[in-house]
Each structure stands twice: as C-alpha cells, then as structure tokens.
User: Fold this.
Amino acid sequence: MKLKLHRPICFFDIEATGVNIGKDRIIEISILKIFPNGGQEDKTWLVCPEIPIPPQSTAIHGIKNEDVAGKSTFKDVASSILTMIENTDLAGYNSNRFDIPLLAEEMLRAGISFDIRKHKTIDVQVIFHKMEPRTLSAAYKYYCGKDLMKAHSSKADTFATYKILLAQLEKYENLKKDVKSLNQFSHQKNIADLAGFVKIDDEGNEIFNFGKYKGEKVFEIFEKDPNYYGWIQNSNFPLYTKKILTGIKLKKFNK
Assistant:
C-alpha cells in the first residue's frame, strides 16, 4: 500500500552514546527521504560525539570509540542534515520519545534553530504498540515475514522502519494512509516539549510534568517563583525544553 505524500517524508534512525537526551550525543544518523513521486535518497553520517562511547552502548550498536575517531562532529554535518530534512515530515521507530528529541538537542547545540512544529511526525513504534505490542525486530518479522539483519545499525533500522510502515498500511484497512492522519495516530498527546517535561492540560495551558510544581501552570509558577525559570535554564534539562519554556515566559510577560 502506497503512503500518500503531499511533500517528502524522512525516515531516520539514530545511534547514540546513551539515552539521556540532555547529555548524550549522536554517533550515527541515517536518513531515508521518500518523495511524493516515489523517488528515494538516503544518507548515513558517522559522527564523532566528542565524548566517550560507553561500553554498554557499544554492546548495543557495535560502534566503538576508534570507529568515530577523526570523523566529523555533529556541528560539522548539522547543516547538511538540516538541508535534507527541511520542508519534510519525519518518521522513525520510537522517534517521538528519542530520535526527534535528541536530533533537536544536537541541532540546538550546533547553533541551528529547530522547530518540530514545522514537521508532522509519524512514530511507527506507537502504531505497532497500539496494534501489536512488540520490539523493532519482532515488528519487522511480524509485518515483513523475515528476520531483521544487522539490527541496531542505523541504516538497517531506518529502512526497516519504512518497510514496516508500508506493511502496516497494507495490513490495517482502518489505518488512514496520509501523513496528517498517521501523525495524529502516532503522536504523543498533550506534550508541549519533546522530552515530556512540559505537558498541556485540558484547557490548553502548559503545565510542569516534573518536580515540586508538577501539574501546575508554567506561567503561574514563573510569576510566583521567578527564580525557578533561572534554575531550569542553568540545569541539565534538554535545550529544546528550555526553548519551549523561554517561549512561554516571553509570550506571557511581553503581552
């Protein structure tokens, strides 16, 4: 079943030094760009993370410190990545919770503005978990009928994710085929930032989802406790979360 596209969509996968969005770094990113006419292009970057790769991470994806020695840093390749994903939608496996937040973080570290609102997103894992709760390898075997070779290679995982989505569209007749519908189906509801530190309540207000003010409105806390904003900005929160909170602060107090 063909995916209905009104503009290109980029399937991508990231291998990283770990899973902490605020401190870990990308070491490999692979992007498969699908055009509305069915054309494809793909690119994989092996990146020097500028911090050591822990052995437990190497055990998962197989990338060692010596493999990235002398490679370009993310800052060196960020503009090329941005060019590839600009004016596209984004899709991945567990991408709403990990790949997109980490990509946004790395872009901001590189001095490049990143706004997820410019992209519709599809998380193939969310679709899979809603339909058939399993892992990526199991999803590939379930939907595509064979074992996933070289799992945890970013390129293999990227192409597998695209194939899984096509198989999902074929299997589930009630699953709409356009990006907008798939974005809504696989979207993390009521999340204001990418990492889940800020949520949106039923009235559309941003609320804290952590700490002593959990559940309280962000702009009310910034009025009541101005130092809390400064504490967040000086702490190890993701840069995209800080950006969202700054936007809320400026919007509220510049009225």
